[in-house]
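Notes to self, Lysylphosphatidylglycerol synthase TM region:
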Amino acid sequence: MNKIIKKTLKIVLPVLLGGFILYWVYRDFDFERAKELLLHGTDWGWMLFSLFFGVMSHVFRGWRWRQTLEPLGAYPKRSDCVDAIFISYATNLILPRVGEVSRCGVLAKYDDVSFSKSLGTVVTERLVDTLCILLITGLTFLAQMPVFFRFFQETGTKIPSLMHLLTSPWFYVSLFCVIGVLVLMYYLMRMLSFFEKVKGVVLNVCEGVMSLRNVKNIPLFILYTLLIWGCYFYHFYLTFYSFSFAEHLGFQAAMVMFVGGTFAVIVPTPNGAGPWHFAVITMMMLYGVNATDAGAFALIVHGIQTLLVVLLGIYGGLHVSLVNRTK
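result:
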């Protein structure tokens, strides 16, 4: 019974957290404006073009992952790696951060790749991606420092006085986000403690982590990494051109919102729902977009991008099973 309760909480708590933040952000929102924009104010040519980059970011990630597996003596099909990435992102919609585990399970099932070793390569990938986002954040912060300071001030995180902080509604949104991250860290520590009890698993994970040292084509690995993050950015940036009120914002504004949104999705909610909306809306308002249009933008873009994740997950599950139907 305890296991059932724990599994239920792992699904329900992220949904509740995301739902609470969404409710707080959109509690006074005019949803008719979002409906009007979706039906009559969206340039679908630009929107579809942005989705192309969303798909390619997953494809490049699958190809890069295969590179890190090769030094371990694992040579899964390239398409299986991509399908596993599709499935992992869709899985994260149900159980945040579990997708990284699910994709290792796909290769273990269809390509006989050691689960623990492939999990180690996923850890390596996350370390590389963390370095990338820190570099992007640093450069963006230096280029747009006044905007970030205004963001901190508007959200009550500048702390000019204790009373102002405690009376800011965004303080409580941020508090719930921090609590969500702490809960995620707790489950990660539990996961690591479980692995330590299993003989050989930790060694295999470490071997997977160190696989980057023996990647044959480092320039190609770097190219894939640049393409992944470039696709992530253009997946978001090109959506600006889908709306008349956002098309003038420009590259630098997109970088600021991209960085803010990237950090927001660290909070364990389905596809960053709630924290991502909060970050993008607040930053878009700093660039002169009114609250209603900014809210509609976040709602439409996040909804469409989440739908893409779902469709790719379904495709990946069907495709990998058909390609490997003999297994």
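- The two ends are 34 Å apart (CA to CA).
- Residues 291-323 form the longest helix (33 residues).
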